[in-house]
Amino acid sequence: MQNIIFFGDSLTAGYQLPGSAAFPSLIQQRLDTLSLPYKTFNYGVSGETSAGGRQRIGSVLARQPVDVFVLALGANDGLRGIPPRDTMQNLQFILDEVSRRYPQARRVLAGLEFPFDLGPLGGHHLGVYATEFKALFRTLAERNQLPFIPFLLQGVLGHRNLNLPDGVHPNAQGQKILAENVWEVLEEVVR
């Protein structure tokens, strides 16, 4: 049995949903159905930034061996306007720490983006930020030669019927789409 660690924020944790509805549990169901020898671990913490993940990574890596590590952090950085270079440095630290402790671990990165370009509305600095924020994930994936989920919230962000009333966190149906987005890339890693 190999271990898949999902390391993220409320999107991974399945904010306000039962654990069985969060996408890591849905991935476990798919692995079981396919008789693939993996156990998933959901290390999603609501509200966490990349800096929080950087502080927490050591204790998570000490809990069990890591065969596959899926990094899905950064949404709260974007919401707080944290400079993309800071987010990138924190995510790189996490990726490096996984490789240092588990050199054979296969690492996967999930990307994020803002739903629209704010530049035409006069929010030029917001448009620039959104572009830089989106780009940091692909840059990290290419630099580290990682399997890359381009946009974790693809098909969910902005769809009221797929989100909780806060309009930010996926509901159970939205989590199913997140699981599909992740599986599209993860399938190649685990087979």
Keywords:
single chain; alpha/beta; globular
Written overview of the protein:
It comes from Hymenobacter citatus. This protein is an alpha/beta fold. The protein has seven helices and five strands, in the order βααβαβααβαβα. It has a five-stranded parallel β-sheet with strand order 2-1-3-4-5, sandwiched between helices. Helix 2 packs across helix 7 (172-190), helix 3 packs parallel to helix 5 (84-101) and helix 5 runs parallel beside helix 6 (124-144). The protein is globular, with a radius of gyration of 16 Å. 39% of the residues are buried.
Query: What is the end-to-end distance?
Result: 13 Å
Flag low-confidence runs. 116-120
Order of helices and strands: EHHEHEHHEHEH
The side-by-side strand order for the widest beta sheet comes to 2-1-3-4-5
Radius of gyration: 16 Å
The main β sheet shows up as: 5 strands, parallel
The gross shape turns out to be: globular
Portion in helices: 40-55%
- Please identify the structural class as seen in this structure: alpha/beta
The fraction of residues assigned to DSSP E strands is: 5-15%
State the helix count.
Answer: 7
Question: Using DSSP, what is the number of strands?
Answer: 5
Question: What is the residue-mean pLDDT, rounded to a whole number?
Answer: 94
